[in-house]
From TrEMBL:
Gene Ontology terms for molecular function: ATP binding; biotin--[biotin carboxyl-carrier protein] ligase activity
One GO CC annotation: cytoplasm
EC code: 6.3.4.15
Organism, as annotated: Gallibacterium genomosp. 3
Xref: Gene3D superfamilies: 2.30.30.100, Bira Bifunctional Protein, Domain 2, Winged helix-like DNA-binding domain superfamily/Winged helix DNA-binding domain
Entries under SUPFAM superfamilies matching the protein: C-terminal domain of transcriptional repressors, Class II aaRS and biotin synthetases
Protein name: biotin--[biotin carboxyl-carrier protein] ligase
Record InterPro entries: aa-tRNA-synth_II/BPL/LPL, Biotin_CoA_COase_ligase, BPL_C, BPL_LPL_catalytic, Transcriptional_repressor_C, WH-like_DNA-bd_sf
BPL/LPL catalytic domain segment(s): 59-245
Annotated catalysed reactions: biotin + L-lysyl-[protein] + ATP = N(6)-biotinyl-L-lysyl-[protein] + AMP + diphosphate + H(+)
Keyword Kinase found: no
TM regions (residue ranges): none
UniProtKB keywords: ATP-binding, Biotin, Ligase, Nucleotide-binding
Amino acid sequence: MNQQLLQQLADGKPHRYQQLSQTLNLTEDQLQNLLTELTQQGIQIEQTETDCIWQPAAELLDHTYLQQILPNNHLIVLPVIDSTNQYLLDHLLQLPNNSVCLAEYQTAGRGRRGRKWISPFAGQVILSFYHCFPQHTQLSGLSLAIGIAVAQALTSLGYQQVQLKWPNDIWLAGKKLGGILIEMKQNPTSFDYQVVIGLGLNIHLPLDTSIDQPIAMLSQQKQVNRNQIIAQLIQQINQVLAQFSTQGLTALLTAWQQYDYFYQKPVKLLLEQQQIHGIAMGINPLGELLLQTEQGNMQTFAIGEISLRAG
């Protein structure tokens, strides 16, 4: 992918083919081939006989800016990758702790339970964070701690109605904004837990995106500075991971309740073989869902798919 061409088009203004060819030292055929490649990556480029335009204007990842703000994180910034999570998993032994992989576009992004994660070029936060925990660390509830970090970061940037849906989803005003996927390996020598935390958040998606549920985008609430959002997210994840490493989820329970979309609401919990109705009553220190059943019993669940119950 031609990074110089992306930088030329990212301003969202019309660019003449002739001028682009001269600036980038390309033939017109080479330029057209590159434009076709960008379109195949999900970039919305409108073309006329004389010029082309990338709409809406895109803010590309700024490695220099991010590294200046995040000196304690090793940053890998890539235009296109199969999966940022997979990149970190493949390079764990070569990377320092708290390394972060960022990308403009994923060709094989994945969500929970093997679901495909849709990511238009430069239209999302696509971020994976590597952190190493000592082998005896209790990691239950880690995804919830990361959710809290994300909610706190977005709230600090002025976003309203940031919500968390147990166990891995980020919501905005009652619609899904993004999700968290945690994957893990154990170091063969030290037996420490090498954890990769994947985070995806919608910034701007095309209206014809084929997603089977209502979605939210950060751009719907306010003008977005994507690099600023990413910097704030990583800073908050750094803080929460340090807290989680020493105190677990216990110190974050109050924060979870603040953002818990389902707290004290009637819900249904879908398990593999059954469906349970009750009132969601938050989480315990292990990150398990507390559900007051219709029989009045309080039960805990470590897995399941939760949704609001009609009536």
